[in-house]
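Entry 0007
Protein: Redox-sensitive transcriptional activator SoxR
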Amino acid sequence: MPVLESRLSVGELARRAGVATSALRYYEQLGLIAAERTAGGQRRYARAMLRRVAFVRAAQQVGLSLDEVGAVLARLPMDRAPNKADWQAVSPLWVARVDARIAELERLRESLTGCIGCGCLSLRTCRLYNAGDTAATRGPGARWLLGDTPPKPGESTGM
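Output (structure tokens):
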């Protein structure tokens, strides 16, 4: 059986990996996966790409960006499925990032019932903790959820 015939079409890879064909084309454009082309220009993927797509999806589920995924996948072999030694070499690269994500989610869980999104974490005391939207002076996003400490009611923000 010729090599390209043993490879997966874009539709087969999409079905087996549980992603849209457009996602696969995008992953290929970013260099996360690679395809060979048939004489007619159709994409054919090595079966090792299934593992790479699974890795991309798992990383996205824990909040990692495609840039972060790409940096790690660039260290792994493209021509074969990564083995245990390959994974052990790259996994420490994300430990700090995953730990930071866990801490962020724990902060969110602790304040989830009162947060309305501005970062002050309370519908009732919003006007006290975030009077005049002082949280905005600290940067974009929900500042208190991101780890900034809100002032105590009546305390100046010092900004």
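Curator remark: Helices lie at 10-17, 21-30, 48-61, 66-73, 84-90, 92-111, 126-129. The first strand starts at residue 8 and ends at 9.
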